[in-house]
Amino acid sequence: MTKAEIVDKVAKATGIEKIAVQSVVEAFMDTVKDSLVKKEPVYLRGFGSFIIKHRAKKAARNITKKTTMTIPAHDIPAFKPAKVFVNAVKK
User: Fold this and answer.
1) What are the b/e assignments for 24-57, b being 16+ CB within 10 Å?
2) CA distance 58 to 72
3) Which residue, among 26, 27, 24, 21, has the nearest Cα to 7 in the 3D structure?
4) For residues 30 and 42, what is the distance between their CA atoms, to the nearest angstrom?
5) Burial class (CB within 10 angstroms; exposed 0-12, middle 13-18, buried 19+) of 22
6) Is 35:41 a contact under the CB 8 Å cutoff?
7) Do 67 and 36 touch, CB atoms closer than 8 A?
8) Fewest CB atoms less than 10 Å from the CB: which of 46, 64, 76, 81?
9) Residues 6+ apart with CB under 8 A from 78
10) How far is CA 33 from CA 12, 28, 68, in A?
11) At what angle do helices 18-37 and 3-14 cross, to 10 degrees?
12) What pLDDT is stored for residue 66 in this prediction?
């Protein structure tokens, strides 16, 4: 599902104009992104959590050049679904 499809479904479900729904969806995504940039998790009860996962430094091999390189430690965004969400998908 794309952002445009989400906007369409929400607009139909709520009766709000697509332009207004699109601005709300984009504001939501910007808010989540800004929070994660600040390393603040976003908790949506009954849906899930947007969190930052830390990846430790590790060694990797380039098998074509037969060399070893070090991948530095870094943070990545992740989503952890709530149990209600997981159970709904399982059905």
Assistant:
1) eeeeeeeebeeebeeeeebeeeeebebbeeeeee
2) 7
3) 21
4) 12
5) middle
6) yes
7) no
8) 64
9) 50, 51, 52, 53
10) 26, 9, 33
11) 120
12) 87
In the block, residue with structure tokens 């499809």: 5
Q: Rounded to whole angstroms, how far apart are CA atoms 27 and 90?
A: 30
pTM of whole model > 0.90? no
List the end-to-end C-alpha distance of the chain, in Å, as a whole number: 20
* Lookup: tokens for 63: 């098998």
Contacts 24+ apart (CB under 8 A), 67-74: none
Token couple for 1: 């599902």
Tokens representing 42 are 């976003």
Q: Return the pLDDT at 91.
A: 82
Q: How far is residue 25's CA from residue 86's CA, in Å, rounded to a whole number?
A: 23
